[in-house]
Design goal:
With 572 residues, the chain is of the alpha/beta class. The protein contains 23 helices and 18 strands.
Length: 572
């Protein structure tokens, strides 16, 4: 039962979490502010939000809930959203959990706020049964529960799909809409607001891609966050054609062409920042699917020191990119961060004394002081053609987005041989295979051995949320199998700041192959990748991708589960 005479501060003293002296100090700090005493104690570092919730639960005899326990997953579709409006919920930090007749169970951060409890009882006409929860957990749960109402309030309920909604298939009815009507629908205010909100929400959630996929009876809306796709509550199916047309108009694509893939781009200003978007559409059996790539030029992404290189790896990389000539290759699968690493390298070495030119497909980030060219195969501007033209532009540094064919490879190697520093990417699984790939393409081994300065293979690992990661002692079998030496490892848990995923952001794992004399001799002889790997480990001290990632696991930056899902286990 609630004890009306008790206050949060006194309950914390009774619970032994703070002393009378500490409480008095906090009260002094609180004076003249609108902050609650609990907030002040947390800011002073004397307690945590979890401490407050735990003590209130124990001292008042009421249940305690966290997001990780699942007890704050309020059910949707039962009228709780209408019973307790979002504005009231966010303002007073209360979340409706369940209703039985005239009894309403709510989660709150401060059950001793009797004024809020009384107002909530009057608002709902129910007797209030409180459950106490940490503030951060409560804020995150409220954001999830009322997440759709932002769209509902902005564009109207009829524009959103209801949970479980399955509209009848249109049997191609959308295809017979006239172009005039389609353009008209795409330019209606609700559709414009809907597309803007989808994009803004994706940026807020740190998404790199937005997938809008038509199904038989619904639209699938997904955001890719830290490399993983998450489903988002979708718009109503009947809006599919208008949404796609609106996006096509933004990207200057042909809204009449629905049978062929199209690519485009647009830019938006958000909070004073210019953000670039790449749009790709393809025809599917249920209509057009669109993917929007969000290109945010975060300052930390262009700082080599923030990418995840170990000290030895960073030393080798910086030596290579500061050389006056040579070939530096980045390798790895699509989406492994190769282009970002190259941009960071260019950002570090650019200066008024260097002429730096790039040819890319597409140009993902715009860098001041660098001449960037977008390839256009339709008019004959290819990687090879652009590279050939660059050599007449008095370049110091050349970046080629990707080496795809013999001609581009040969010109790149010749450029490095004639005194230029050349950066590029290839698609192989590890660093030694990049050398053999160029030889397979048709580059003479003796020329490659003379020009290759460095090869970096990389992968991206999700970074553990530092707010909620959990330490544990790995079992002996795990230590033996994966080569773990650290006493403690960390695993994902989930909290408000990381949207309950346990991860926030990404970092790189790298395999950096520097060139020793022995390695150059082996490349000149055309030796296979496994021979090059053995020599790189023996003579250059190269660490494998697995070992690089394992260091980050042991440092508590990522989890063993994440490493195992991204990098193949290898023991050299």
């Amino acid at each position: 039962m609630l004890k009306l005479g008790d206050k949060v501060g006194q309950l914390l003293v009774k619970g032994g979490l703070v002393t009378e002296e500490q409480l008095a100090k906090a009260l002094e700090v609180q004076r003249g502010t609108t902050k609650r005493i609990g907030e002040v104690l947390v800011e002073l570092g004397l307690i945590t939000e979890v401490d407050i919730a735990t003590v209130l639960s124990k001292q008042l005899g009421i249940p305690y809930a966290t997001r990780s326990s699942g007890l704050l997953n309020a059910p949707k579709g039962e009228g709780l959203e209408e019973l307790v409006p979002e504005e009231f919920s966010r303002q007073h930090l209360v979340l409706p959990l369940s209703r039985t007749l005239h009894s309403l169970t709510i989660a709150c951060a401060n059950p001793l706020d009797l004024l809020t409890m009384d107002n909530l009882s009057r608002l709902t006409g129910c007797e209030i049964n409180p459950v106490v929860a940490p503030k951060a957990d409560l804020e995150a749960a409220i954001a999830v529960f009322y997440g759709d109402t932002m769209l509902k309030d902005a564009i109207g309920q009829s524009y959103l799909a209801e949970p479980g909604e399955e509209r009848p298939a249109t049997d191609g009815q959308e295809d017979v809409l006239s172009l005039d009507r389609l353009k008209e629908a795409a330019e209606e205010a609700p559709v414009i607001r809907l597309v803007d909100l989808i994009i803004h929400q994706a940026i807020k959630e740190r998404a790199s891609d937005i997938h809008i996929e038509p199904g038989k009876n619904k639209i699938n809306l997904r955001y890719r966050i830290d490399g993983v796709l998450y489903e988002i509550s979708p718009p109503a199916k009947h809006l599919h054609a208008a949404i796609i047309s609106r996006i096509k108009i933004l990207a200057k694509l042909d809204i009449a062409e629905k049978r062929l893939p199209q690519d485009g781009a647009f830019m938006m200003m958000l909070e004073g920042r210019a953000i670039d978007f790449r749009v790709s559409s393809i025809p599917t059996i249920y209509g057009e699917k669109v993917v929007i790539r969000i290109l945010q030029q975060a300052p930390e992404l262009l700082d080599l020191g923030q990418l995840g290189f170990e000290d030895r790896e960073m030393e080798l990389f910086r030596q290579a990119i500061q050389m006056p000539y040579g070939l530096v290759l980045l390798t790895g699968p699509t989406g492994s961060g190769k282009t970002t690493t190259l941009y960071a390298a260019l950002n570090e070495i650019k200066s008024a004394t260097k002429n730096i030119v790039t040819i890319e497909d597409p140009v993902e980030y715009r860098l001041d002081g660098i001449n960037q060219v977008q390839i256009k195969p339709s008019i004959g501007l290819t990687f090879a053609g652009g590279l050939r033209a660059f050599l007449r532009q008095d370049p110091d540094v050349i970046m080629v987005g990707e080496i795809r064919d013999k001609e581009t490879a040969e010109i790149g190697v010749q450029a490095a041989l004639t005194g230029h520093l050349v950066f590029s990417t290839v698609h192989t699984n590890d660093a030694p295979s990049a050398a053999t790939r160029l030889i397979d393409i048709g580059v003479p081994p003796y020329l490659l051995a003379s020009t290759l300065s460095l090869v970096v293979a990389q992968r991206l690992l999700r970074r553990l949320c530092q707010e909620c990661r959990e330490a544990y002692e790995p079992l002996p079998a795990i230590r033996e199998r994966f080569g773990v030496k650290a006493e403690l490892l960390y695993k994902a848990k989930g909290c408000g700041p990381c949207t309950n995923t346990g991860y926030r952001g990404r970092l790189g794992a790298y395999e950096v192959m520097g060139m020793s004399r022995q390695l150059r001799d082996l490349i000149a002889k055309g030796e296979p990748a496994h021979v090059l790997r053995d020599a790189a480990v023996r003579h250059s001290g190269m660490s494998s991708l697995w070992d690089s990632g394992l260091k980050k696991v042991e440092q508590g930056l990522t989890s063993l589960e994440e490493l195992e899902s991204v990098v193949l286990l290898s023991r050299d």
